[in-house]
Specification:
Order of helices and strands: EHEHEHEHEHHHHHHH
CATH architecture of the largest domain: 3-Layer(aba) Sandwich
CATH superfamily of the largest domain: Response regulator
Strand order of the largest sheet: 2-1-3-4-5
Number of strands: 5
Strand content: 5-15%
Number of domains: 2
Radius of gyration: 20 Å
Number of helices: 11
Length: about 220
């Protein structure tokens, strides 16, 4: 890993998300050794004012997580502005790490590496970087490039109505909600969505709503306008 960027000027709020109190106590003990971070229980974090709940790093112990990882990120995004997510788990394959990044994580660290590198990883992702192996990062960038190329092809071939529906899908509206908003039939929404999936070479709505796919679409659209 590269050197830690020196951009953290004050104690960083770090909130462990774990399956039980013993796992949380273990993480708290690792975090308490650093003067750069301020560990906080999730229940105490929620009591903070919205203005203080921002730029927080959540250390998510995926071992035994009771809700799907994507749902966990969704819930944390709702309570924090500009959160960063560092996943802690047993040893993962490169493909599994890339999948975490696609869903919205900003880094991964194994349980074995946590005692010596957890705080370093936290500061790294807090500074806007990804904490993963160079090989996983390269695979992830390749996937991002593939998504960008698909979006470019789609913009060249999608109709105005398909573009509207794609944007609403990425805002996580249901087919019924899209139909009501655009005043069209649900069957019409499904027809356009089928065309969108084909043009984007996507397999499901989930691929259309992945955080990085959405950001790439928005960034590219901004450049063209």
């Amino acid at each position: 890993m590269a050197d830690i960027p020196h951009t953290i000027s004050s104690r960083l709020l770090v909130c462990p998300v774990t399956k039980n109190c013993l796992a949380e106590a273990y993480l708290q003990s690792l975090l308490s050794k650093s003067r750069n971070v301020r560990p906080l229980h999730l229940k105490d974090y929620i009591r903070l004012s919205p203005s203080r709940r921002r730029n927080t790093v959540f250390v998510i112990d995926q071992c035994g997580l009771e809700v799907p990882f994507s749902e966990c990120l969704k819930q944390l995004n709702e309570i924090c502005l500009n959160p960063r997510f560092l996943v802690l788990d047993y040893e993962k394959s490169r493909e599994e790490v890339v999948r975490l990044l696609v869903i919205g994580a900003h880094g991964y660290i194994s349980h074995a590496d946590a005692p010596r590198a957890l705080v370093r990883a936290i500061l790294f992702v807090a500074a806007g970087h990804l904490w993963v192996s160079p090989e996983a990062l390269q695979d992830f960038l390749s996937q991002v490039g593939c998504v960008l190329r698909k979006d470019e092809r789609a913009r060249q071939s999608t109709t105005m109505r398909e573009g509207e529906i794609l944007e609403l899908v990425r805002r996580r509206l249901s087919n019924r909600e899209i139909a009501d908003l655009l005043q069209i039939r649900v069957s019409t929404v499904k027809f356009h969505l089928s065309n969108i999936l084909s043009k984007l070479q996507a397999n499901s709505r989930h691929e259309l709503t992945s955080p990085y796919a959405r950001r790439l679409w928005e960034t590219s659209s901004t450049r063209e306008s």
